[in-house]
């Protein structure tokens, strides 16, 4: 039976609302119970169509999305959610295979967890993603004003980015990645460093989340994402911002 919560019940300090979209009832019930016991208000549905409808009627703080859904699959659900805004998304994938993981990240997911999903791992990822979404920049004072990098304007205090004067809509993880890279222009940052500083993953984090986020960021800030000027790959090492 799906776990439901009354409308407005999640308006409690420290109780983020999670929308869980998972067709396997045993997994759905198990994760609902486990996450609920860890302080999350869980709204669980079985299909992508139900999930999209629930987004409109009862907006969550984060979506946990199974990729292999009947009907409207998780990839399409992810794309539709991302097209409508920057709501954080963690995807659940049954197999740790490149084609699934990369496709899900390319569709706009912020992170992923491989099934069988251990509740403590999923909960840690949820809290990390919510921290990134609530505060895209480090909790230290930042100078006022706009940094200029070619056509890009980066306002660290206001957490906004413009290109040639026009606003650039970035998801929280994309923004945090850009802020990390522009903090040290010209310096090469390893994928592992970015995993730890942006995604808060430990040593065994998956660098594919970094690569996919870089591709999404390039698509928004580069004139030609196949010949990047801003976010450059240093083969075998990682990424650097510029030199322009």
Automatic annotation (TrEMBL):
Signal sequence interval, chain numbering: none
GO molecular function: DNA binding
CDD domains to which the protein is assigned, alphabetical: REC_OmpR, trans_reg_C
Keyword Transcription regulation on entry: yes
Location of the Response regulatory domain: 17-130
Pfam families: Response_reg (PF00072), Trans_reg_C (PF00486)
Residues recorded with modification 4-aspartylphosphate: 66
Keyword ATP-binding set for record: no
Residues that span the membrane, as ranges: none
Residue ranges of the annotated DNA-binding region, renumbered to this chain: 144-243
Keywords attached to this entry: DNA-binding, Phosphoprotein, Transcription, Transcription regulation, Two-component regulatory system
Domain OmpR/PhoB-type: from-to ranges: 144-243
Protein name stated in the entry: DNA-binding response regulator
Organism annotation: Amycolatopsis oliviviridis
């Amino acid at each position: 039976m799906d776990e439901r919560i009354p409308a407005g019940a999640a308006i409690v300090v420290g109780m983020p609302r999670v929308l869980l979209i998972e067709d396997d009832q045993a997994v759905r019930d198990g994760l609902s119970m486990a996450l609920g016991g860890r302080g999350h208000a869980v709204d669980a549905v079985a299909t992508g169509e139900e999930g999209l409808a629930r987004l409109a009627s009862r907006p969550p703080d984060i979506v946990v999305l199974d990729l292999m859904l009947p009907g409207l699959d998780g990839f399409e659900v992810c794309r539709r959610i991302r097209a409508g805004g920057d709501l954080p998304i963690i995807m659940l994938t049954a197999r740790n295979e490149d084609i699934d993981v990369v496709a899900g990240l390319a569709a706009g997911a912020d992170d992923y967890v491989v099934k069988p999903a251990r509740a403590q791992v999923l909960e840690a990822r949820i809290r990390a993603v919510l921290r990134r979404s609530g505060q895209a920049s480090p909790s230290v004072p930042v100078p006022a004003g706009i940094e200029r990098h070619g056509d890009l304007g980066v306002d660290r205090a206001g957490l906004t980015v413009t290109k040639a004067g026009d606003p650039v809509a970035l998801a929280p993880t994309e923004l945090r990645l850009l802020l990390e890279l522009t903090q040290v222009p010209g310096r090469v940052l390893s994928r592992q460093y970015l995993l730890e500083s942006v995604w808060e993953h430990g040593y065994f984090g998956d660098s594919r989340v970094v690569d996919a986020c870089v591709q999404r960021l390039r698509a928004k800030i580069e004139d030609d994402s196949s010949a990047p000027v801003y976010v450059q790959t240093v083969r075998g090492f990682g990424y650097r911002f510029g030199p322009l």
